[in-house]
Amino acid sequence: MVAREDLTTDEQLKSQLLLVRRGTAFWSRKVNELADDELDGASLLPGWTRRHVIAHVGYNARALTRLVQWANTGVETPMYSSPAARNEEIAYGATLPARALRHLDAHASVSLNVEWRDTPEEAWHHEVRTAQGRTVPLTETVWLRNREVWLHAIDLDNGARFSDVPREVLTRLLREIVGAWAAKDTDPGLRIQVTDAPEFGELGTAAGQDTGTLVRGDLSAVAQWASGRGGHRLQAGADVPNPRWI
């Protein structure tokens, strides 16, 4: 019998699953607020229309579903056969009739949720490989999807803001981005101050130094800048280019 509740009993994981379901509902609401002819409009991502963003999020759900199936069956099923295939898939999806594009998005999200729901406790610790080549436990797919739905809802450019994103998501996102800069040695000497989150301290390779380039603002403003979506809401560093993250 198909499970109607999550099989996992891990309370932290269940909390993350609840968060991604909230994010999916938020994303779906922003998609459904758009009229069909508005799907052709520009998104906040350079070179992508809203259609591209919706196709990307839909196919991302299918790709993550493949990772869940990998963990559950032991049969390796990569997210994408190649980066080129991923790009071609998005380009094709963006050409679909509006009704088909909306169906792709909705159906893929439901399928992923069902796969997560029916995943037994032990399978959550099985390792899979992301599109970037990282080997991670299946639990990481929940964060990957959280990141997708919350950020890309903003990228639709129809009213969603970083201040709408849960603090928990913004906190993990900012730590991930700063960590990626450090791992790739791409931080040019930043001092990042998050005014409403003292638990961060000062971030960046020049933290605690007077010579670093200061970036300062509240958590949503700093996360917006760090993710490459503009620094106009910062108190300091609005013109500082952010290093590449992904």
Can you lay out the helices and strands and say which pair or pack?
Elements: H1 11-32, H2 50-73, H3 83-93, H4 98-117, E1 127-129, E2 135-137, H5 140-155, H6 167-184, E3 190-194, E4 202-203, E5 213-217, H7 219-226
Parallel strand pairs: 3-5
Antiparallel strand pairs: 1-2, 3-4
Helix pairs in contact: 1-4, 1-5, 2-3, 2-4, 2-5, 6-7
Describe it.
By secondary structure, this protein is mainly alpha-helical. 48% of the residues lie in helices and 7% in strands. The chain has two domains: 11-160, Four Helix Bundle (Hemerythrin (Met), subunit A), CATH 1.20.120; 167-226, no CATH class. It contains seven helices and five strands. The strands form two sheets. Strands 4-3-5 form a three-stranded mixed sheet. A hairpin with a 7-residue loop joins strand 3 and strand 4 (202-203). Helix 1 (11-32) runs antiparallel to helix 4 (98-117), helix 2 (50-73) runs antiparallel to helix 5 (140-155) and helix 6 packs across helix 7 (219-226). The longest helix has 24 residues, at 50-73. The chain is globular. The N and C termini lie far apart (40 Å). The mean pLDDT is 96.
Tell me the domain tally.
2
Strand percentage, roughly?
5-15%
Q: Give the name of the CATH superfamily of the largest domain.
A: dinb family like domain
Main sheet overview: 3 strands, mixed
